[in-house]
Each structure stands twice: as structure tokens, then as C-alpha cells.
């Protein structure tokens, strides 16, 4: 008879380590906080500075479904900041902090690819957030701007 066929595979258990984007200081967890937000491939980590221990403390580690291509902050006066994320497949996420649960929450989400967006940019997408915190402009496809 024929020998049984065996398939083997390798799976990594280590999370992503390469930092793609980082923004600081961000008032995400509270108005007074100065958080560091780090995007590592498919993971978003939020750190805060612990003055007593003089080190960074991980407040939240959150997996993202897709590789993060863009990370920016929408700063709102007298309120906590909001994160604007765009994945390589042009999925948009707007994330905020839920104080009662102590974790990230999705404020808005969507897909920027539609019938008008035929040619994606060869370079990374661009985002600009207005200082007033009411507007974000995204440029991810040739000839098309998206406004939040």
C-alpha cells in the first residue's frame, strides 16, 4: 500500500513586533492623559506613562482585522481624542475610549473602496485632521477625497 500522506506547518505564536506607526501625546483614556499609541502590523497598543515607576504601562492591546496603513488622531477640544485608522485594504475605523469598560470602542467604520475608487495610490494613504477636531480628510485613491 501507499504510505500515508502527512502535512506539516509552522505557526508563529509571537505577536507583531515591528512598529509601523506611533502617535503621542494622545488624550485617549482621559482628558488629562498623555498616551502613546503604537500600531504594530495588525495590533494597536495604548500605553500610559507611570510617573512612580518611570515606565510605560500597557493600558490596552487591541487586534485589528487587517494591516494598519494609516494612524492619525482627531483631537476634540475639552474631550478625549479619537483615533482614525485605515487598513491596507482601505477599511476605515474611528476608535474612541469607553471609560466605563476601560477599552477601545468603535465609533464608526466603513470601506473607502467603491465604484469611483478604481486606482488606489501606489504610496501610503494620507490623512489630515483639522485642529478643531471636527473634520478629517483622507486621500487613498487617485482623484478622490473622503471627509469625516
TrEMBL record:
InterPro entries, alphabetized: Beta-prop_RSE1/DDB1/CPSF1_1st (IPR018846), RSE1/DDB1/CFT1 (IPR050358), WD40/YVTN_repeat-like_dom_sf (IPR015943)
Pfam families found in the cross-reference section: Beta-prop_RSE1_1st
Domain RSE1/DDB1/CPSF1 first beta-propeller: 23-146
Protein name: RSE1/DDB1/CPSF1 first beta-propeller domain-containing protein
Organism of derivation: Zooxanthella nutricula
Amino acid at each position: 500500500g501507499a504510505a500515508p500522506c502527512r502535512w506539516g506547518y509552522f505557526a508563529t505564536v509571537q505577536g507583531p513586533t515591528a512598529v509601523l506607526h506611533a502617535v503621542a501625546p494622545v488624550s485617549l483614556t482621559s482628558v488629562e492623559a498623555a498616551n502613546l499609541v503604537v500600531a504594530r502590523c495588525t495590533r494597536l497598543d495604548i500605553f500610559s506613562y507611570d510617573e512612580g515607576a518611570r515606565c510605560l504601562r500597557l493600558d490596552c492591546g487591541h487586534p485589528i482585522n487587517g494591516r494598519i496603513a494609516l494612524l492619525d488622531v482627531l483631537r476634540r477640544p475639552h474631550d478625549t481624542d479619537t483615533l482614525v485608522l485605515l487598513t491596507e485594504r482601505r477599511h476605515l475605523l474611528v476608535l474612541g475610549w469607553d471609560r466605563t469598560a476601560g477599552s477601545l470602542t468603535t465609533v464608526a467604520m466603513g470601506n473607502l473602496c467603491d465604484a469611483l475608487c478604481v486606482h488606489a495610490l501606489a504610496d501610503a494613504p494620507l490623512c489630515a485632521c483639522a485642529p478643531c477636531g471636527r473634520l478629517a480628510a483622507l486621500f487613498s485613491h487617485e482623484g478622490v477625497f473622503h471627509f469625516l
